[in-house]
Amino acid sequence: xxxxxxxxxxxxxxxxxxxxxxxxxxxxxxxxxxxxxxxxxxxxxxxxxxxxxxxxxxxxxxxxxxxxxxxxxxxxxxxxxxxxxxxxxxxxxxxxxxxxxxxxxxxxxxxxxxxxxxxxxxxxxxxxxxxxxxxxxxxxxxxxxxxxxxxxxxxxxxxxxxxxxxxxxxxxxxxxxxxxxxxxxxxxxxxxxxxxxxxxxxxxxxxxxxxxxxxxxxxxxxxxxxxxxxxxxxxxxxxxxxxxxxxxxxxxxxxxxxxxxxxxxxxxxxxxxxxxxxxxxxxxxxxxxx
Length: 290
Fold this sequence. Notes:
The protein is α+β, with helices and mostly antiparallel strands. Helices cover 46% and strands 22% of the residues.
């Protein structure tokens, strides 16, 4: 994507365990519906991002934060012609729970009650976390992250609703999900999956979408990308990881991985190993169109 003006870096800092970091500028980028295992705290610096979240479009501009809870389906795209520039931190549910227990009165599983929060001060904190991680300042990075998460939980947090599986449709969707996880490389057709569960294909499709926010095939792609990320983190080559989870080849993986994570798998893995900057001669940027 040379010359497009789009740049992104997705990395981890060893002194912030359980936290992913992202700095990006996107213009034409479109994130397909996907989920994250961690929380998303995206601080918009310039432009506008639109993301579909729980049935409606949300708009986040300069001075605002996009806040997504784990396992919540959402999309992402530019809301203005010039795109959007942002920094994001992705703290684990365990870290957020730890911070909430120590600094808030939230009872139960903590999460964000609002998808967009206008808070220029915390936007600045998020960017300072990324800067501190770049500079290897572990004390500052950890301190600022905890201050930012505490402030967001106090201003826009609350207990997340429990996802009790009560209806027959939700139970069928959960069973279908288990089958897809087990048969990730050779999934059944929708018709076969529904027949094995004793319901019609359209009933399963509707129940799955209602429960997980996306149809089974989209969920499967998202789950494959999640598993690839773990394989890449463990040192598996992208081509091997692609086949291991059921993608036909590395280009097939590249396309879906970039549409969900925001950077291609090769750039993602180099940054996780800490040699992305050395390989490219740049400290802070990766070309998403690798």
